[in-house]
Amino acid sequence: MLLSACTGSGPDEPAVTSSPVAEAGWVPPPADAVFDYQLGGAYPPAGDVGIVVRDRTAAPDPERYSVCYVNAFQTQPGENDWWAREHDDLLLKDAKGGYVEDPDWPGERLLDTRTAGELADVVGAWFAGCKAKGFRAVEPDNLDSWTRSGGLLTRADALAYGKILIDRAHAAGLAIAQKNTPELSGEAGFDFAIAEECAVYDECGDYRDAYGRQVYEIEYTDNGADAYGKACKSYGGEISIILRDRDVVPAGKPGYRYEHC
Fold first, then answer.
1. Which residues on adjacent β-strands are paired with residue 218?
2. Glycoside-hydrolase family GH114 TIM-barrel domain location, by residue (predicted)?
């Protein structure tokens, strides 16, 4: 995986010198369009692809609806020094003052969503940077980080912060995705869903019920072919489903895999 003048900029990210500028006209991605998930590195997508998801540090695809990935609820490991230096008070800490990390993604520290307004100033400026580059939507990741906080954060904290991020995205002229976390589907007011492994966990219907055909689903090769086949058989005519290698490496690199149904 994966600022205003008053906050500074993250590593390798140019400073944004103003807060997000309100713009009318944001639109969600086209329903059931073929998409490609390129977080491991940008590459030219296949001709039938209509939606491309890339990291906020990458350039959007100028010919397709482009979605900007932002790790909005946790840090990227390479940015930990920057967070500690510039916004240490926004990082979640345990009772002993240590940083709380995601046990599944070493080095990713949880952001303290109880400081929702201050966090949104930082992340909202990243949204503005996505818009300035030409992205049309944002994908704020790790909405479910409260479940890995050891009880320090709550579902309500995640929802409150999520709603502020929705306002910031819309003010910047961007649609915004719910990333995973089916138990929150439809509650916060996201515009569409990007879901990982919903066939593995039997969650695809939850997203479909909340977002109709505007669900973009990724299954991974390390789960075998059954989950992808199940997703295609059950929902392939209703939502966009792809199969990708777990590291989402660029086309032409060892391990690359991409299919859609």
1. 196, 242
2. 35-249
Contact 174, 28 (CB under 8 A): no
CATH fold for domain 35-260: TIM Barrel (3.20.20)
Distance CA 102, CA 147 (A): 10
pLDDT digits (tens, 9 = 90+) for 50-76: 999 999 999 999 999 999 999 999 999
What are 11-19's contacts with CB under 8 Å, separation 24+?
11/78, 11/79, 11/82, 12/57, 13/56, 13/57, 13/126, 13/129, 14/129, 16/125, 16/128, 16/129, 16/132, 18/128, 19/121, 19/124, 19/125, 19/128
Alpha carbon distance 189, 187 (integer Å): 6
Domain ranges of the chain: 35-260
Q: Is the pTM of this model over 0.85?
A: yes
